[in-house]
Amino acid sequence: MMMEFKCKKSFRFLILWSRNLLGIILLILISHINITSIISQTPQIETNSTKLNFNQKLELLFVKLKSCQCVFVRNGSEHTPEEAISHMKLKLGNSGGRIQTVPNFIKYIATKSSFSGSVYKIRWKNGDEKEAGPWLSDRAKEMNIYH
């Protein structure tokens, strides 16, 4: 009788353990499915340069600039990314349509002041600074829009 009790107890333990293991496996699978569906639903920025025109590429670059949590330093004055973008759009408009590529935009519009010749910089809250031209070029290359 004692042997029968131990066997039943072991069998119950095995069943409970199997159910728990099955539950864990199901949780892992469901979690993976949920994560996969979330990732697949996350909007992806289309950076296939053959599908984007110049203005679309610039807008992607501007989104990156707006999200950098930095200030744009132009002629010694700090400007918000929105102010910097507005100024660069004004300069682009004044270019008479001669600028049609992201590299040329960065080189002729977003690198230095056409008035003073001073280099534009990007400054972060911690005080780090980088020249705007190389920083924008790096971001454009990361997004595959530097063509």
What does this structure look like?
It contains 5 helices and 4 strands, in the order ααββααββα. With 147 residues, the protein is α+β, with helices and mostly antiparallel strands. It has 2 domains: 1-42; 54-142, no CATH class. A hairpin with a 2-residue loop joins strand 1 and strand 2 (77-79). The longest helix has 40 residues, at 2-41.
Instruction: Determine Rg (CA atoms, Å).
Output: 28 Å
Question: β content, as a range?
Answer: 5-15%
Oligomerization state: single chain
What low-confidence regions span 5 or more consecutive residues with pLDDT below 50? Answer: 33-46
What is the number of helical segments per DSSP (H or I, 4+ residues)?
Answer: 5
Helix and strand run? HHEEHHEEH
Number of structural units classed as domains: 2
- Spatially, the strands of the biggest sheet line up as 2-1-3-4
Task: Write down how many β-strands occur, each being a DSSP E stretch of 2 or more residues.
Answer: 4
For the sheet with most strands, the description reads: 4 strands, antiparallel
Category from helices, strands and their pairing:
alpha+beta
Shape by Cα distribution: elongated
Whole-number mean pLDDT: 81
Cα end-to-end separation:
82 Å
Helix coverage percent of residues?
55-70%
Helix-strand layout with pairing:
Blueprint: H1 2-41, H2 54-66, E1 70-74, E2 77-79, H3 81-93, H4 102-108, E3 121-124, E4 129-131, H5 132-142
Antiparallel strand pairs: 1-2, 1-3, 3-4
Helix pairs in contact: 4-5
Which features characterize this protein?
single chain; 147 residues; alpha+beta; four-stranded antiparallel beta sheet; 5 helices; 57% helix; 10% strand
